Amino acid sequence: MTPVARKQGGGAQETTCATKPQIALEQIRTAKAAAIPVGVVLDGGANSNDQ
After folding, report:
1. Separation between Cα atoms, residue 39 and residue 32, nearest integer Å
2. pLDDT tens sequence for the chain (51 residues)
């Protein structure tokens, strides 16, 4: 999507990309900051096509 289309549609003006591990770490950090009780984290690696 072009910057003009994002502006017209009210979307984010900038986008970023993150790897699955980066996303997972951010989710864990967010959960810790929100004092969510610690538990098991499943990564879904067995179901992924990523090598």
Report:
1. 11
2. 677 887 788 777 677 889 989 998 999 899 999 999 988 767 666 655 655
- CB-based contacts of 3: which residues, under 8 Å, 6+ apart? 13
Q: Which residues contact 15 (CB under 8 A, 6 or more apart)?
A: none
Nearest CA to 32 out of 43, 21, 24, 22 is that of: 24
- Position 38: which residue type? V
CA 11 – CA 4 distance, rounded (Å): 10
Angle at 9 between CA 3 and CA 14, to 5 degrees: 35
